[in-house]
Amino acid sequence: MAKKPGIKKNLFYSVSYQILTIILPLITAPYVTRVLGAKSLGIYSKSQALAHYFLLFAMLGVNNYGNRSIARVRDDRSELSRTFCEIYAFQFITAIITSSLYWVYCIGFSTQNRMIYMMQTFYVMSGLLDVNWCCFGLEKFRLTTTRSMVVRFLTAVAIFVLVKGKDDLWLYTFIISFSHIASTLVVWPFIKKHIDFVKPTWAGIKRHIKPNLLLFWPVVAVSLYNIMDKLMLGWFSEDEEVAFYTYAERIVTIPTTLILALDNVIMPRMSNLYATKGNNDKSVRFLMDNVMLFAMFMAGAMGFGLAGVADVFAPWFYGSAFTRCGFFIILLSPVIVIKAWAGALRTQFIIPTGRDKIYVFSLTTGAVVNLILNALLIPKINGVGAIIGTIAAEFAVCFIQFFMCRKDIDIKNYMTNGFSFCVIGLIMFLAVEALSHISSHALVTMAVQVVCGAIIYCVLGSFYMVKIRKNPVLVNEGLKMLRIKYRFQ
Fold first, then answer.
1. Between helices 7-35 and 282-318, what is the axis angle to 10°?
2. Mean pLDDT to the nearest integer, 220-244
3. CB 341 within 8 A of CB 395
4. What's the rounded Cα separation, in Å, for the pair 66 and 134?
5. How far apart (Å, rounded) are the C-alpha atoms in residues 249 and 165?
């Protein structure tokens, strides 16, 4: 039997994969915002959001269910092959139906920008071939990460070389859409090495339908307030507004993803500790308390820090036509704080202790809140309405998760820390905002803002943790990383 990859390596590749998905699109963003413009990118964002919903229904809950099912039988090649073929057969059927329905929509219902919507067909059809869930179940994280890196790099090169003006929106859409097909195709040679293809029976396929659908609902709930806002903006507002909102959201997603990626690294250890030592063990509480402290510290720094530089950053990075993005980034920055808190609680307590009902209920509530507020506010105040809906939805998810876990966690301690870091972040924001006109050069201004903001936040945050909370663990870890020998007691 082949040697299994280590957990640390798998976690490294998993975190790298998450970071890669947000960084590489940003490499092309300054170019495409200037070449294609806000209106064209708004059209693309609307078409991609709609196509993504069709892809969700093509895949249903197979990413989570397939991953788990493959992991359970991976040491038995015969059972592994049978399980894979049954699940994939179900996926293939749903993907064929969904892709056909999307094509019908493009032909019969997309009266404007039909070519752009048709180019998204490749994106929807990637559901026919996407078997990443099998790779993850077999713990082949390196394969998916390296494959994604190569495909995304080639995609970026193609955009820079081929996309030259607003008339190339169809080509830009085709390149991005086809890259999803390409990224699924390169996995199949690996699959053929580990899977013996057998003819699935209907009874075998049917046994996977119900659990697949059960895991599909959380995916839909998340998508309702992460994607539906773009569709509703497209229905009730201008294409430019969709682009401003989309590209502001992309920036805000970066710090959130980084914080959650670090949380996910700790989650397997927390799961093991809860299973072996229980909820009340001192080592479990110590680790959870410090992970939560770190998440709240980082959320305050990134949320308020990003808001402070947004007005300077957006027009410098995206171009002067995207100045409104800066305003949207400021309004969206509370999402960083809220999602970091909820994400830390989810990865350090809710998921490791198997309290999935709390997660599903909170997501469902967030989706309902978002849909109601979007329907009420977007027609009246456009992108600002979508932002209010997003913040309210994320707050609802966070509030419900903390409230339903209040008897099992030190909620008073977490709320005190969270509020304190928000106050410190606000002080930093005011200082950084005051420096926004210090130079006529945007890069110089942002450099001064970042350095001054980091110093203010770190000094005040360290004082709070060491002198007020009497918990210098994070500060000492920071000193250790800087190779400073002094340690606080």
1. 20
2. 83
3. no
4. 7
5. 24
Residue 111 in this model has a pLDDT that exceeds 80: no
From CA 132, how far away is CA 190, in angstroms rounded?
11
Give the count of beta carbons closer than 10 Å to the beta carbon of residue 228. Answer: 19
Cβ neighbours around 81 below 10 Å, total: 16
- CA quadruple 473, 478, 483, 486: dihedral sign: negative
186 is written with which tokens?
A: 């390169």
Lowest mean pLDDT among 11-25, 46-60, 335-349, 418-432: 11-25
d(CA 454, CA 432): 10
CB atoms within 10 A of CB 175: 22
Average pLDDT across the chain, whole number: 85
| 246, 342, 475 from 414: Cα distances, Å | 32, 11, 18
Q: What is the 3-state secondary structure (H, E, C) of the chain?
A: CCCCCCHHHHHHHHHHHHHHHHHHHHHHHHHHHHHCHHHHHHHHHHHHHHHHHHHHHHHCCHHHHHHHHHHHHCCCHHHHHHHHHHHHHHHHHHHHHHHHHHHHHHHHCCCCCHHHHHHCHHHHHHHHCCCHHHHHHCCCHHHHHHHHHHHHHHHHHHHHHHCCCHHHHHHHHHHHHHHHHHHHHCCHHHHHHHCCCCCCCHHHHHCCHHHHHHCHHHHHHHHHHHCHHHHHHHHHCCHHHHHHHHHHHHHHHHHHHHHHHHHHHHHHHHHHHHHHHCCCCHHHHHHHHHHHHHHHHHHHHHHHHHHHHHHHHHHHHHCHHHHHHHHHHHHHCHHHHHHHHHHHHHHHHHCCCCCHHHHHHHHHHHHHHHHHHHHHHHHHHHHHHHHHHHHHHHHHHHHHHHHHCCCCCCHHHHHHHHHHHHHHHHHHHHHHHHCCCCCCCHHHHHHHHHHHHHHHHHHHHHHHHHHHCCCCHHHHHHHHHCCCCCCCC
Q: In angstroms, rounded to a whole number, what is the distance separating the alpha carbons of residues 276 and 161?
A: 55
CA distance 245 to 233: 9
Closest CA to 290 of 477, 14, 484, 486: 477
CB 38 within 8 A of CB 299: no
Instruction: Say how far apart CA 223 and CA 221 lie, in whole Å.
Output: 5
Count Cβ neighbours within 10 Å for each residue of 9-32 and write b for 16 or more, e otherwise.
Answer: ebbebbbbbbebebebbeebbeeb
pLDDT tens profile 159-190: 999 999 989 999 999 999 999 899 888 888 88
The residue behind tokens 């209920």 is 361
Q: In which residue are the tokens 């949380």 written?
A: 263
Decide if 442 contacts 319 (C-beta within 8 A): no
pTM of the model: 0.79
